[in-house]
Amino acid sequence: MKFTLVTIAGLVSAASAFTPSSFVGNTMVGHREVTSSSTSLDMKYKVAVVGGGPSGACAAEIFAQEKNIDTVLFERKLDNAKPCGGAIPLCMVGEFNLPETVVDRKVRQMNLISPTGVEVNIGDTLQPDEYIGMCRREILDKYIRDRAVEYGAEIVNGLVTSIDIPADHKTNDNSQYTINFQKFTEGSSAGVPTSMDVDVIVGADGANSRVAKAMDAGQYNFAIAFQERIKIPEEKMTFYEEMAEMYVGDDVSPDFYGWVFPKYDHVGVGTGTVVNRPAIKQYQKAIRDRAGDKIAGGKIIKVEAHPIPEHYRPRRTQGRITLVGDAAGYVTKCSGEGIYFAAKSGRMAAEEIVKLMKNGSRLPTQAEIEKTYISKYDGLYGPTYTVLDILQKVFYTNNGAREAFVELCNSKYVQQVTFDSYLYKKVQGNNPLDDLKLLGETIGCLVKGYSIAKPDVEFSNPIESAKRI
Question: How far apart are CA 305 and CA 310, in angstroms?
Answer without folding.
Answer: 16
